Every structure is written in C-alpha cells, then in structure tokens.
UniProtKB/TrEMBL annotation:
It holds the Pfam family SBP_bac_5. GO terms for biological process: peptide transport. Its main location: periplasm. Belongs to the bacterial solute-binding protein 5 family. Residues 72-326 form the Solute-binding protein family domain. PANTHER family: PERIPLASMIC BINDING COMPONENT OF ABC TRANSPORTER (PTHR30290), PERIPLASMIC OLIGOPEPTIDE-BINDING PROTEIN-RELATED (PTHR30290:SF10). Keywords: Signal, Transport. This is ABC transporter substrate-binding protein. It comes from Sphingomonas paeninsulae. It comes from the Bacteria. GO terms for cellular component: cell envelope. The keyword Protease does not apply. One of its GO terms (molecular function) is peptide transmembrane transporter activity.
C-alpha cells in the first residue's frame, strides 16, 4: 500500500511538471507514447527492434499484409494473395504505390527486401521461423511469389510483423511519413493521395498527425494523466504497478489477451541448471496461482506448460508430469530433490535471476524467491542482460499462432539446455512433407520439451495500454498489436 501511494505521488508530481493535469491537446492530433526507449528507424536485419522501434516501423513502412485492430491479417502492400494447392507457393498481387521518396514500388524491390531478411548474414529476429522460405521472386512489377520448401499456413501472420515490413533504401510506403523531430517526439503526417493516375488511390488514416514518443512508463502514464497524451501502449508486468497506482477511470486501462511466453529460461552454465530433475524442482515449487493473484489483473492466467493451446500440434499441449499434484505435494517433492542434491554436491551459490527493471519485477522476484526459499534454495536478482545469469525472464508475445515459435524460442538454438529428442523433432517438423507429418513432429517436440524443463513457464504475457475515451477503434487482441491507423479521434 505504501509503495502504491509513493508511485501515485510521483505520478502527480510528474503530471504537474507537464504543465498541469486536466488540459487536452489539439483535437486533430494523436499524442501517443510507446513504453521504452526513443524510437528509431532501425534495420531489423541488423538489430533487434524495441517496442517503440516496431511501432514507428508500423506507421511508416507497410508489409505485404498487416494486422487490423482485432489482430487479423488484412491487405497492405498486397491487395490480394493466393496459395497454390500444395501450399508451396504464395503469390501476392501488389497495389500500385510509391515509396515515400517518390519512386514506384516494384515487385523486384519487394522481393529484395524479403530476401534480405532470410539471407545468411541476416540477424532478423524472425529468421529462425522463415527456414521454409526458399526464395522470394518479383515475377512482374506488381506480382511477388514466395516459394516455400514446405507448407506454412501461418506465414501471413509473420509477414504482418514489423520485422518483415518492406523497405527500399530505407524508404517505406506509409501510412505516415516522418515530418520532423520535436524535442523528444517524432512528428508523423499521413501520406496524402497525389492523384497520380499511375498509382492506386490511397485512403489516408483517420488521424492526419501523430506525435509519437518512446518513454519510460512513469512519464507516459503521467502524460496521460495530464491529458497531454491520449494513447499509451507497450505496457508490461514490470510497469503495471505504475499504471495501477494512477487510479485512472474504469475503462481507460485495457489488457490484451496476449499469447506468448512469460517465464524463466534456464542458462545451463552451472551443474544444478544442467540437471533436468533440478530444473523441474524449481518449476514445481512455484505457487503460480498466488503469484498471479497478487498483481490484481483480471483474467490474467497462470500456466505451467509451454504451449498455450494445441495450435498446429497433433496433440493437446503437454503439461509436466507433476502438474496435477497439489501444491504441498509438489513443494515437498522439490524439497526432497534439493536436499538430495545438496547432500551430494554441497550447498549451491544463490541462483542468479535476470529480470528487467520495473516495480512489477520486484514483486515477481519476491514471490518466486519466497517459494524457492521454502524448499531450500536462495536466489539473487541481476540485470536482465547480465552474462552470469542462471535463469533469464522471457516476456514476449508470439508473432504467429504456431508451436514452432514456442519450441524455437525455448530450444537448443536459443541457448537453453538442449533436449536432443525435442531438437530432432523440431528440425524434422521444419522439413516435413505435409502438415500432418509436421504436426506429429511438433507434438513429439512438445512432449520432449516438457520433460526437459529447460523453460519454467509462469503465466501468459501481460500487455496493457491506456486509451483516452476520445479514441475509438482500439480492440484487445492476442497479438497485442494496435495499429495507429485504426484509431479515430472523436471531436468534441
């Protein structure tokens, strides 16, 4: 309670610093904050995108397809597409558009942009999920073909991600263009239809001007409280106590039913973390229901398995063997295993848990370590990027509704303890001749991953936004994507 009052007082001070609470900006301008660092027009083939980077790319560069406000795929650069019957070719018909720098968009330029993402030297975050793409070909100026080595029914969801937005010499196709930098903000103006008979008619977004910032959660929430901003997005569990302490009106805080990973990835450097039985002991000792309940987030769900649903697996998701046991029995078994380990190997050093910054992470750390102390293990907190971590939090929303991402993100290639059976099955799924065989291999990989316990699931990811009542067009969705082009300002 004291901590919440302290945060609330800090927000009120910040609110007053922003020239007083209760004042609105212009009715025709959207002031949007994305929680994080200042946004950059980054190259996703060379560097990982931050949340603000991704949002800026969504506003200035289109992919072949995009997500709408409900998280459903809709046309973007491509006005239509079709898959061949064998699922090995996806053909996209492009709209006639121009780059922001004036040149006409061609199929060869679009193909080149996508081929860079899958090239051998690419560091694109989605590259591990694109191994089924053989090549991308510009068949004509207005037709692009993606040739696949194996069918991928969830390909469109990946193509809608900002990592695969189409660019040419750094230029995109809107729906906004960067007009200026104003202190700590980027000013975006909508792309206007120039009545060019050689291009398709462009319908500008409902909001003509956007002022976008990447900033810390405390500043973003204070700006919203001061009515100097109408939209905040990118909130996570780490920032949640800040928004909670703001005591905003009901309906302004919106939570996405995000699907993805929120749990601890094991770093197999010390002997204890190399033992699957000990990793399972850590997982079974956690009281997930109490952990989740302590944050006061409606409909937030604890989870003790890797996959949130069956997805494209041949079997329902596999829970660990101890999942159905009572908490007291689970913790007794964890204590027995740890006691036996200590008797053989000696008392281990405190486990180092790498967590991001934020008040929510302090609460998370306290809850997990209380459960581990109860079964005989101590832990300390280290920075999220610490090189000496024993466990590191993964807090990510899945880019598509496929088990492939979950298994890849927590598998051998991601630096977690390697379960040979899971790795072999995952690799086999990527070259499976059809979707039936692929689903069987995915089920095998899921079962082996559950036994290996290289990843300790905790809950579904938390993603929250603040939405002014003057904004319409916002919808919660499982991808936690909220295109600014879908938002509308209601005039007073």
């Amino acid at each position: 309670m004291i901590a919440k009052r302290t945060i609330h007082a800090a927000l009120l001070i910040a609110c007053l610093t922003l020239n007083g609470c209760g004042r609105r900006g212009a009715d025709d301008v959207l002031v949007a904050s994305v929680i994080g660092t200042a946004p950059r027009i980054a190259d996703p083939d060379r560097t990982l995108l931050t949340g603000p980077d991704a949002e800026l790319i969504r506003t200035t560069r289109q992919g072949l397809v995009a997500f709408d406000a409900n998280g459903q795929v809709e046309p973007a650069l491509a006005e239509s597409w079709t898959f061949t019957k064998d699922g090995l070719s996806a053909i996209f018909r492009l709209r006639r558009l121009r780059w922001a720098n004036g040149g006409e968009v061609t199929g060869s330029e679009v193909a080149a942009s996508l081929n860079r993402a899958i090239a051998p030297g690419s560091h694109n975050a989605l590259k591990p999920l694109l191994a089924a793409i053989d090549t991308v070909v510009g068949m004509t100026d207005h037709v692009v073909e993606i040739r696949l080595k194996a069918p991928r029914p969830n390909l469109l969801e990946l193509l809608a991600q900002p990592e695969l937005a189409i660019r040419n010499r750094g230029s995109g196709t809107g729906p906004w263009v960067m007009a200026d930098n104003e202190h700590d903000a980027i000013i975006l103006h909508s792309v206007k239809d120039d009545n060019d008979p050689e291009t398709d008619v462009v319908t500008p977004p409902p909001i003509a001007k956007v002022v976008m910032r990447g900033e810390r959660a405390g500043i973003a929430v204070a700006r919203f409280m001061a009515q100097r901003g109408g939209f905040v997005t990118g909130g996570t569990l780490g920032d949640w106590p800040i928004a909670q302490a703001a005591q905003l009106r009901s309906g302004m805080i919106r939570f996405d039913p995000a699907e993805g990973l929120f749990g601890l990835a094991v770093v197999p450097e010390i002997a204890m973390m190399q033992d699957a039985g000990m990793r399972a002991a850590l997982s079974m000792a956690i009281d997930r229901d109490t952990l989740v309940a302590g944050f006061g987030i409606a409909r937030w769900r604890a989870i003790d398995r890797l996959l949130p649903a069956q997805l494209d697996s041949a079997q329902p998701p596999v829970s660990p063997s101890w999942s159905a046991a009572a908490l007291t029995d689970r913790q007794a078994e964890a204590r027995r295993r740890i006691t036996a380990w200590v008797a053989t190997h000696g008392t281990p050093a405190p486990l180092r848990i790498a967590l991001p910054k934020g008040p929510g992470m302090k609460i998370l750390f306290a809850r997990i370590t209380a459960d581990w102390r109860a079964v005989g293990l101590d832990a300390v907190r280290v920075d999220h990027d610490a090189s000496n971590a024993d466990l590191r939090l993964i807090d990510e929303v899945a880019p598509n509704a496929s088990a492939n991402w979950y298994l890849t993100r927590t598998g051998c290639g991601a630096g977690l303890p390697c379960a040979a059976t899971a790795d072999a099955a995952l690799k086999a799924s990527r070259i499976a001749p059809d979707l039936v065989h692929r689903s069987i291999e995915i089920a095998t990989a899921d079962a082996a991953a559950a036994e290996g316990a290289a990843y300790i699931p905790l809950a579904w990811p938390v993603r929250w936004s603040l939405v002014d009542f003057a904004l319409t067009g916002f919808h919660e969705n499982s991808f936690a994507v909220h295109p600014l082009a879908e938002l509308r300002l209601q005039r007073n």
